[in-house]
Amino acid sequence: MLTRRFGTISIVGLLVAGVIDTARAAKCGSTAAGFDVWKQQFADEARAKGVSAKAVAALLDTTYASATIAADRGQRSFRLSLDQFLAKRGASTIVARGHALKQSEAALFASLEQRFGVPPGPLIAIWGMETAFGRQRGNQNTLSAVTTLAYDCRRSAFFTDQLYATLTLIDRGILSAGTRGSMHGEIGQTQFLPKSILNYGTGGDLNNAPDALAATANFLKAHGWRAGAGYQPGEANFSVIQAWNAASVYQRAIALIGQQIDGGS
């Protein structure tokens, strides 16, 4: 679990230097058969880039996450129509709960909007969509999930970057080898990937809602959120919502749910 506090952290050189070379040297695979050999190769390269013995030992203790691979291959909900997606994700429940939270936590959301320029609607929509307001944060070993996805050929380069971030977080005591989260390595109330923790963590525990919402607002601000501007498709801040998640139906759902929570039509 995320129990230690952390501040905004810049990515150290090992996260960006040689990532492409590492992905080429440690050959990716599409089954569990080559995972252990790949881990050994990756561990050697990680040591050469300055990753600590503690973090490398955690890496070598990971197991192939079959459930993560199955989830990565089966994201069918992103191919639904917007109406189908909203129904599947329980949008009406998110909106109803969102209205209540906007009132009961008015001081928190006012503080976040003053600090980051982001209104309550999109933050609450993301929170509800990602984890049903913290109730569904996942129970997958984060390091095993990210290591498996770095090994898997489908998105090896992207998750190699995430793996180096995870190892850095373990080295600094922000995560542990036993940290658990969702299938792709997302952590906390709003599901931050490890690299986003490094880039946009504002201090605190991502399993704590106020801290997670602050980090989420910081992510949106860092990606160009303009205070007071709209966030529906075609408006200034919709591109920022697109930075949060690559699936177009998800982006439109967040925009619509956020608008309904913020009181729009």
Provide structural commentary.
This protein is mostly helical and 265 residues long. It has two domains: 13-72 and 138-185, Helicase, Ruva Protein, domain 3; 77-137 and 201-261, Lysozyme (Orthogonal Bundle), CATH 1.10.530. Helix content is 58%, strand content 2%. The protein contains 15 helices and two strands. Strands 1-2 form a two-stranded antiparallel ribbon. Helix 7 crosses helix 9 (120-131). The protein is globular, with a radius of gyration of 19 Å. The protein starts with 12 loop residues before the first helix and ends with a helix.
Could you give a short description of this structure?
Keywords: Signal. The chain contains 15 helices and two strands.
Give me some keywords for this one.
mainly alpha; Lysozyme; disordered N terminus; two-stranded antiparallel sheet; single chain; 2 domains; 15 helices; 265 residues; SLT_2; Helicase, Ruva Protein, domain 3
How does the helix and strand content classify structurally? mainly alpha
Task: Spell out the helices and strands N to C.
Answer: HHHHHHHHHEHHEHHHH
Q: How many domains?
A: 2
Shape: globular
Strand content range: under 5%
Task: Please give the count of helices.
Answer: 15
In total, how many beta strands?
A: 2
The CATH class of the largest domain: Mainly Alpha
Give start-end ranges of low-pLDDT stretches: 1-24
* Distance between the amino and carboxyl termini: 39 Å
Examine the secondary-structure arrangement and name the CATH architecture of the largest domain: Orthogonal Bundle
Helical residue percent? 55-70%
Task: Please list the strands of the largest sheet in the order they lie side by side.
Answer: 1-2
Mean pLDDT: 90
Major sheet summary line: 2 strands, antiparallel
CATH topology call of the largest domain? Lysozyme
Radius of gyration: 19 Å
Protein name: Lytic murein transglycosylase
Pfam families: SLT_2
Signal peptide: 1-25
InterPro entries: Lysozyme-like_dom_sf, MltB-like, SLT_2
